[in-house]
Design goal:
two-stranded antiparallel sheet, 2 domains, alpha+beta, four-stranded mixed beta sheet, 499 residues
């Protein structure tokens, strides 16, 4: 890996476009290096993972809305597939629908460093572009390896959230780069597409603050849709604002740390394999990633606590990120509102820890129902939970050593009789260094569990066989899943829109 310094440049400064970060990323995308076997295998795992969470979300309202919008853009040739339904649709709208299905339940893969990310959000737009272009499995895997690589590298180097910029600002460029690899585009075309994708996908973090709405699911699918459109325009010869990150009026100068700040972004050297996906990890529980380990900790401490009505207080000592994003450091009263949206509750570690402690489990549906959130004993326990930032957990969260990096915390539970229970956890059980690391069998089990009652057993079998043979596929439509009409009929009725 090569560390690239990235800073603002004055317009009058000599700064050849070959030195722009977007151009360096484009060169990585255009590098014909082969994909290593470990990367290929993990890409297949994540294709299965995305299908699993899409099955679990397909009948939810935001996913239904996105699917119906895509259905307004059906095509008879050169199209892409939409999860759950037959037919082909315009690639950018297929990416929109499928990206929303993947993201809706906050239940797929994650990478956390200087910034947050869900790298699996790259799969819907890159797959849709591959289907539209008639590409095969080998090209798809190459494109996805790039998408993951660029997103992880940007997340390692550039923090967005401290400036209240949403993390999908790293997704637009990574998806555009991945599509560039997929289509074997030249460096300059990919460079322009990356610039356009970044320019059109920067937005504030208000989508993840306060009362969180369904836009949280749409935000990454919008970025994927913009990436496809950016690539299309660049292929037609259109350019982008440049230098997009380093310009005097660019992203660093006005949206991030300002013209005096220098970032360091690591990128693979020419000929270096793309292995960044191997640093990412998926979720066992349908909640924000920083809650994963703490859910496992609550389940572990449940027997020691016993009667949760005897809890006087619970203090979770954790990282800066966890405290300020999903903890009491956010100062969001909505995180304690039993009538808050599901999206808000899955960003409330006090709620999540309370329910996991009471139930000994976390379920993607049962744990979020209004009835569950409004249980009086739960509300009382929930309001006794707080978080504090601890420097050591913050240091471990930001560590670049994978054996030290941690996303957990320490729980101090004080009972009404004065007894103090104390335990901690560094990583989730499903993490590669956790108690029960996810491998292919666990991904398949997650898929079958979430697909039960939604996807027929025969269709499950067909899809899994196709996914495990991704590299050899000539028809990438085989990676779609079609649902029976009686299942689709269970989707909610939504108002008509404009399209």
């Amino acid at each position: 890996m090569i560390d690239h310094p990235v800073r603002t440049r004055r317009s009058a400064e000599e700064f050849p476009h070959e030195e722009h970060l977007a151009h360096k990323i484009a060169r990585v995308a255009a590098d014909p290096v082969e994909v290593p076997e470990e990367t290929k295998e993990m890409i297949i795992n994540r294709i299965i993972d995305n299908a699993a969470v899409s099955a679990a979300s397909v009948l939810r309202r935001p996913v239904t809305v996105a699917r119906r919008q895509a259905q307004a853009h059906a095509v008879t040739s050169k199209g892409a597939t939409v999860f759950g339904i037959p037919g082909t649709f315009s690639a950018e709208w297929a990416a929109w629908a499928n990206g929303t299905a993947v993201r809706e339940l906050d239940f797929h893969d994650t990478f956390l460093a200087a910034e947050y990310s869900h790298p699996g959000d790259n799969i819907p737009p890159i797959l849709a572009a591959a289907q539209q272009a008639g590409k095969g499995g080998r090209e798809l895997i190459r494109g996805l390896a790039t998408g993951y690589e660029i997103q992880v590298d940007l997340v390692r180097g550039i923090c967005l959230h401290e400036h209240k910029i949403d993390h999908v600002a790293h997704l637009g460029p990574s998806a555009a780069a991945g599509i560039g690899t997929l289509l074997d585009l030249d460096v300059d075309t990919i460079y322009q597409a990356i610039g356009q994708a970044l320019h059109t996908t920067t937005a504030t973090r208000q989508s993840r603050k306060g009362l969180i709405s369904s836009w949280k699911a749409f935000a990454p699918s919008f970025a994927g849709k913009m990436a496809i459109e950016a690539v299309d325009r660049a292929m037609r010869g259109e350019g982008a604002p440049a230098p997009i990150w380093e310009g005097e009026d660019g992203v660093i100068a006005w949206l991030l740390s300002g013209p005096e700040h220098e970032y360091t972004v690591p990128l693979p050297a020419e000929g270096e394999e793309k292995r960044a996906i191997l640093a990412t990890f998926t979720k066992e529980h349908s909640a924000e990633y920083q809650a994963q380990a703490l859910i496992d900790l609550a389940r572990r401490m449940r027997e020691r606590v016993g009667d949760t009505t005897q809890v006087e207080s619970i203090v979770l000592h954790t990282s800066h990120h966890t405290h300020y994003v999903i903890g009491t450091g956010s100062n969001d009263p909505q995180k304690f509102d039993p009538n808050a949206t599901r999206e808000t509750l899955d960003h409330s570690i006090p709620y999540i820890f309370a329910v996991a402690l009471e139930d000994g489990e976390w379920h993607h549906e049962r744990s979020y129902t209004p009835e569950r959130a409004n249980r009086p004993d739960t509300v009382e326990l929930w309001h006794r939970i707080s978080t504090v930032e601890h420097p050591e957990w913050t240091r471990r969260y930001l560590s670049t050593d994978p054996n030290e990096k941690a996303f957990g915390g320490r729980a101090v539970i004080t009972l009404k009789d004065g007894t103090v229970l104390d335990d901690e956890i560094a990583v989730a059980d499903a993490h590669p260094l956790g108690a029960r690391p996810f491998a292919r069998d666990q991904y398949v089990h997650k898929f079958r569990t979430l697909a039960e009652g939604v996807v027929s057993e025969a269709e499950q079998d067909r899809f899994l066989a196709a996914a495990e043979n991704t590299e050899n596929l000539t028809d990438l439509g085989e990676l779609n899943i079609t649902l029976e009409q009686d299942v689709l009929d269970r989707a909610p009725t939504t108002p008509e829109g404009l399209l």
